[in-house]
Amino acid sequence: MAQNPTNSNYLRKTISEVPVEYEHIAGLTLVLTYIVMLLGAYTSAIGAGLSCPDWPTCYGTWVPFLQPNIMANSPYSVLQIFAEWAHRGLAMTAGLFIAGTAVGAWIVYPDDTLVKWSATTALILLPIQVVLGGLTVTENLEPIIVTTHLGVAILILLSLLTTVLTTYLRNTRVDKPKV
After folding, report:
1. What is the pTM of this model?
2. Residue 1: C-alpha distances to residues 71, 128, 147 (Å)
3. What is the pLDDT of residues 100-152, one digit of tens each?
4. What pLDDT is stored for residue 1 in this prediction?
5. C-alpha dihedral sign at 65, 60, 70, 142
6. In this structure, are residues 71 and 81 in contact, taking their beta carbons and an 8 Å threshold?
C-alpha cells in the first residue's frame, strides 16, 4: 500500500532520508543571520543606510546595478549601494532559512518544546524585523527605529542560538530521538 504524503510519519521518514541533518540547517541559519547583522553594521558604519532611498526596492528596481544611470547619478558610491542592497538580499535569504528552520523543528522535533518554540520565536519576530528594516529607510534612520531593528535582530539570533544548541545537545545524548 502506498504511503499517504500527508501522514506525519511519512513526512518524517522522507525528511530523514535527506543527507543533511536538521541541526546543520539550523546552524547555517544561525550563521547566515549573524552575517546579515554584520553586514548591517558595516552598511551603517560606511554611511550607506540610505543609499537605497526607497524600500523594498532600491531606486525603484530590484537590481540597481543593471541601471547605469542610477549608479552615475546617485550621491552614494557603488560600494555603499552594494552594501545596502546586499544586506537586504541576504536578509531575505536568511528569512527563508528562518522559516525553514521553524517548520523543520516542528517536523523533526515534534516532542521537543524548546526546539520548536525557540525556532518559532525567530519566525514570529521575522515580520517585525522586516517592517523595522523598511521603517529604518522610510523614516530616515530614526535612531529609535534603528536601535529597535538591531534589538529584534539580537532576539532572533538568540532564538536561533537556542535552537541550534538544544539540537546539538539533544543529539549528543545516547537516547536521542529517532526520526
Report:
1. 0.84
2. 61, 45, 57
3. 999 999 999 999 999 999 999 999 999 999 999 999 999 999 999 999 999 99
4. 47
5. negative
6. yes
